[in-house]
Amino acid sequence: MIKIYHNNRCSKSRLGVQFLEDAGKDFEIVKYLENVPTEAELTEIIKLLGITPMELVRKNEAVWKSDYKGKDLSDSQIIKAMVENPKLIERPIVINGDKGVVGRPTEKIAEIF
């Protein structure tokens, strides 16, 4: 089952949901702002995406700029910051089995079908 980590207030995330619907795919929506992934879950997602934790951070968010920017943070500290402030997690994240992508641009989602 395909999972999309989704924030309905984000236009790119809404486009990701629309892309999956248009492709006729069955999928589960994870509203990650309400159901925040644990540190272990987020670590697994990052590993599956094949990126570093910093690559998943939304660096233009106010909380990043005020609390974290310019600090020398370990990967685990970055993951903890995203769990404590889920708005920092880039979106949408789409997972299909052992493959995953950040759906920016939206067309990248097709890479995991």
Q: Could you describe the 3D structure shown?
A:
- The N and C termini lie close together (11 Å).
- The chain contains four helices and four strands; from the N terminus they run E-H-E-H-H-H-E-E.
- The chain has helices spanning 11-22, 39-49, 62-67, 75-84, and strands at 2-6, 27-31, 93-96, 99-102.
- With 113 residues, it is α+β, with helices and mostly antiparallel strands.
- The chain is 35% helix and 16% strand.
- It has a four-stranded mixed sheet with strand order 2-1-3-4, sandwiched between helices.
What is the mean predicted local confidence, pLDDT? 96
- How many helix segments? 4
Number of strands: 4
| Amount of beta strand | 15-25%
The assigned structural class equals: alpha+beta
**How much helix, percentage-wise, in residues?**
25-40%
Biggest sheet descriptor: 4 strands, mixed
What's the multimeric state? Answer: single chain
Helix-strand sequence: EHEHHHEE
| Silhouette | globular
Uncertain residue segments? none
Q: Order of strands across the biggest sheet?
A: 2-1-3-4
The end-to-end distance, rounded to whole angstroms, is: 11 Å
Q: What integer value in Å does the Rg equal?
A: 14 Å
What is this structure's SSE topology?
Layout: E1 2-6, H1 11-22, E2 27-31, H2 39-49, H3 62-67, H4 75-84, E3 93-96, E4 99-102
What can be said about this structure in brief?
This protein has 113 residues and is an alpha+beta fold. The chain contains four helices and four strands. The protein has a four-stranded mixed β-sheet, with helices on both faces.
